[in-house]
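User: My collaborator sent over this chain with a note saying "see what the structure looks like." That's all I know about it. Can you take a look?
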Amino acid sequence: MDMKAAETALEITEKAGIEVITPEMASDLLARNYEDNRNIRPSYVAQLANVMRQGRYVSQNGQTIVVGADDGILYDGQHRLSAVVESGIPQPFIVAYILDGKNAYKTIDNGTRREAADFLSMPNKKDCAAVGKFMACVEWGSAGLLSCLQGKWDSRTQVDRGIIIAYVEQHADEIDHAVRVGRAMRGAAFGPRTAYAQFLLLLEYCGTDAYLNDFIKDFSKAASGNTTVTATKTAILKAHAKGSKKPEKKWVLGTLLDGYLHFCEDDGSTMINKQSLRLKQYQRYMEHARESRRCSAFGKGCSPSAKADDAS
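Assistant: Without extra context I'll predict from the sequence alone. Here is the result:
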C-alpha cells in the first residue's frame, strides 16, 4: 500500500465511532457477511440475545464491528449482529470502516485462543473466571444447578467466553471478594478451590445468607467452636484424605450446603450426609430466585429462559 493509500486508510479508520445498530441495520450488514467468515454458532447467538433482552449486555468493550469502507462487506461482528436481530433490541457498537478488508480479515482473531481469564485484569483471575462462569450460568442462563457447575448455559451448550467476561466485569468486586473468602475457608478444609466461592455466591443469589458471615468466621478458624461446622470440615477433610482423587465439586458444594443449613437451624447436628438432598433443595431455591429477579425486572411476562431447563 503506497503512502497516499495508507493516509486514506488512516483517515477512514479515524472516522470510526459509536453507532446504534438496529435489528434492521444488523440484518442489512449480515446480508453482506464476508464469505470466508466462520460459521455462525446459534448457541452463542442465543446466549448473547438472552443477555441483551435482560439489559445486561455491554456492547462498548473495545470490540469493533468491522466493515469494508470500499466494498460494504461485514468482516467482523456476525455473532453480535445476529444477536441484535434475534433479540430485536438495538445496541450501540463501535463500528470501524477499513480499506483492503480481505487482507485485514486475515489478522482478525488470528492468535492463540485466549481463555476468559486472559481478558481479566484482576488478582486470582483464573479462579474469578471459573466462579464467574458458574454464576453467569446461574443468573443469566437457564441450566439446572449441576449443569451450572459444569459451565453449561442450558442443558446442552457451554457458556461462551464472551458471556463469562461480561459477567465477571459487571460483578468484579463481589466475585473477587468471594474468591478471597473462599480461599480462607478452603485453607481449613481442602477441596476444589472455587467450590467455596461458588457456595458463597449461590447463597447470596438465593437470598439464604442471613447467617453466612457467622458460618464463614467459624469455618475459617483452625478450631471451630460449633459442632456442626466442625463436622462439615471433618467430612471434607476425610473425603480429601481417602486417596489421590479429590472430592468432586458438587459433593463439596452439597456438603457445605448441608452443614450451613444445620448451622442455621442451630440443631448441633454432626450428621453431614445429605449432599444430594441439599443440591436439589438449592436447585429449587435457585429457580425461584432466577424467576423472581427476572419477573421483577421485566414485569408480568418475565424474561426469556426464566425457568431452568433441567434439574440435573
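A starting point for your reply to your collaborator: Residues 238 and 296 are 43 Å apart (CA to CA).
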